[in-house]
Amino acid sequence: MLTFLRELTELKGPSGFEDDVREYIKSKIEGKVDEVFEDRMGNLIALKKGKTGGKKILLDAHMDEVGFMVTNINEDGTLSFAPLGGVDVRVILSKKVVVGKDVMGIIGYKAAHLQHGEDYARIPKYYELKIDIGASSKSEAEKKVAIGDPVSFTTEYEEVGDYIIAKALDDRGGCSLLMDLIDDGVDANCDVYFAFTVQEETGPKWPVILMEQLKADMVIAIETTTSGDDPELEKYLWSTHLGDGPAITFMHRGYVVSKEIFDKLVETAKESNIKFQYKMRTVGGTNARRYAMGGMPAGVVSIPARYIHSPISEIRKDDYENTFKLLKTFLESE
Amino acid sequence: MSNFTSLDTKELLLKVTSIPGPSGYEDEVLGEIENVMKDYSNECFRTPLGSLVCVKKGKGPKIGLFAHADQIAFLVTKIYEDGFIRLSGVGGWDPKVIASQKVWVHTKNGKLRGIVGFMPPHLQTTEEYKKVPDYDHLFVDVTMNPNWKEEILIGDLVTVDTKGFANGDIVFAPALDNRASCVAIIKAAELLWRMNIDAEVYYVFSTQEEIGGSGARSATYISEIEYGIVIDVTHGDEDLPGFPKIKIGEGPTVVVGPVTNRKFVEHIKTVAGKYNIRTQVEAIPGRSGTDTEDVQFTRNGVKTSLVSIPLRYMHNPYEKVCVKDVEDTAKLLAFSAAELQ
Question: Cβ(B167)–Cβ(B14) under 8 Å?
Fold first, then answer.
């Protein structure tokens, strides 16, 4: 368990640039499943055939993470950029980033001494911020980077006590669960498709395409979700609480989860004595909605996490393990 | 010799910025600096306020080279039951740059991990979306440390955990304000050690500049110098209305203004010309916000100069300097001392 999470989170894979993540996953699961294939859009799908077959269950985890794209190379050698996915501008000031394959830089921010009055008391706009790669002119920068290059955070994975601190846990945590399930072997009657998908954070509806290809009977989106269990949020506004196990979603933005799948997940957890929690807020969306739009009922199971969509997020190992148990037990009962 | 295999400027910059040394807690970083400096001085000692003074003996005029070694940090001001803490700044932070940083909480029994948490966009209300980060709302999550409850106390020191790196001649690192100047002095000391000069040189790595403390002044008092050059950093590559843009990569600035002695400044400019060292002029009509004022008004007064290394993103977890600027500063310091009669 947790064999791949370190490497998975340290890979660079903003939406649309999932190649490294896909290649990594592919190299680790080949030979352990009955089929591995990549579709036209870059989704990676692995099939593990069931004992009896017939029914098809699809587990979805998205490979992409929030990041940025270079939008301009400025005369002074700095880079302008825009977010890929939802990144609050307040979490990116003075962070180390990697541009393209391996060009290191920082998101610079004006010294406090030079911000006067109103400037100091306001949140900067994306267009005011620049990535500094140490180039002193446009031509020098152009030798290293190009407009359209992806930009990723560079946080190193770290385990402290019962916790894991890393970037991109949303949703490499989900990818890691799928890989651990493949590694561990799933003893199910039904066919299980493990789908590692692209561009969840930027929102296109790729899952519809997957549905068209696979015609699964049931889908579960495996996510890493928000918690909010910190001093800045009153308890009644928390969406999950770290340490209380996998979060089972009954509804989120734009989608009421299939009652049948929801009930089944809850029953499985209860019967097998697996610690779980209900997701207590309906904010945020997942690919479940997009599968449902393709005509397929979908459920959502998530690892609770703090501070997602920022350079540093955090989960608990026991939550991860309980999510694994719930999924494995669920699949093996199908 | 210390653990530096050679005095490569880039390596020195990365090494001395990797050691946390906030105002009042400079001991460890000064220890590392002393390890190097003892090879280039006849004597090293600490002042009662903790500043490190290294002396190269001589029979000529006494000159001091000053750089403050401290950096800005935080203290723990509040601890919540469930493993979160609040902070207050030691020195001039912009709280806006602290969100989503890794930090160290320095406890009596070692350092513990912390992360400055930030509410994901999904959970923010319209009001929260507009909040400018400040100490009242920023918090540090220390729940991951099994022993946080026993170890963390109000008043514990907190430092941001960023690691320096270099891109060619450019270094991005924490605390380059003012470790870049410390490195310039080390490099100058290395040069002067091999030269036969008249002057007696006091290399002073001082404490508590960032909180306006008097580390430099007390060191000046002890050393009884006639000349003093303070080395600090200045805003590079920024447009300041009414002033020329100071450029990173074009050499240190030599400051003109009331905190400096005109004749001594002329001496430094002449040396720069003679040895072909590129410098930039920085006019400071009033107080400089450095230790220069303090050094100037100690004992019977000191003939001061202020030399600054251009630096961008001052007081942020990543600051930026050019290696060549640091080396040019070292040369300027060494020859300015060597040519004193």
Answer: no
Measure the N-to-C terminal CA separation of chain A; round to a whole number of Å.
22
- Shared domain for B189 and B54, answered yes or no, is yes
Q: CA-based angle B102:B107:B112, to the nearest 5?
A: 35
Please give the ipTM for the structure prediction: 0.94
Q: Does A266 share its domain with A175?
A: yes
- Quote the CA–CA distance of B273 and B15 in Å, as a whole number: 32
**Residue contact B320–A106, C-beta within 8 A:** yes
One domain for residues B32 and B42: yes
A161 Cβ under 8 Å from any chain B Cβ: yes
Place of tokens 């055939």: A49
**Structural domain total, chain B:** 2
**One domain, residues B30 and B97:** no
Residue of A nearest to B147 (CA): A161
Q: Is the model's pTM score more than 0.90?
A: yes
- Per the annotation, the verdict on B209 as an active-site residue is yes
Chain-wide mean pLDDT for chain B? 94
CA A316, distance to chain mean position in Å, is 16
Domain hosting residue A124, numbered range:
68-153
Torsions phi, psi for B261 (to 5 deg): -95, 125
Residue B1, pLDDT above cutoff 70:
no
Q: Where are the alpha helices (DSSP H) in chain B?
A: 9-16, 27-37, 126-129, 148-151, 176-193, 215-223, 262-274, 292-296, 323-338
Instruction: With a cut of 60, say whether residue A197 has pLDDT above it.
Output: yes
A281 in the same domain as A135? no
Q: For the segment A152-181, what is each residue's pLDDT rounded down to a tens digit?
A: 999 999 999 999 999 999 999 999 999 999
Does A222 lie in the same domain as A123? no
pLDDT at B186: 97
Residue B273 lies in domain: 9-71+174-338
- String of DSSP letters for B287-329: --SSSHHHHHTSTT--EEEEEEEEEBSTTSSSEEEEHHHHHHH
Angle at CA of residue A208, ends A203 and A211, nearest 5°? 140
Q: Considering only alpha carbons, which residue of chain A is nearest residue B148?
A: A161
Chain A: nearest CA to B205, how far in angstroms? 24
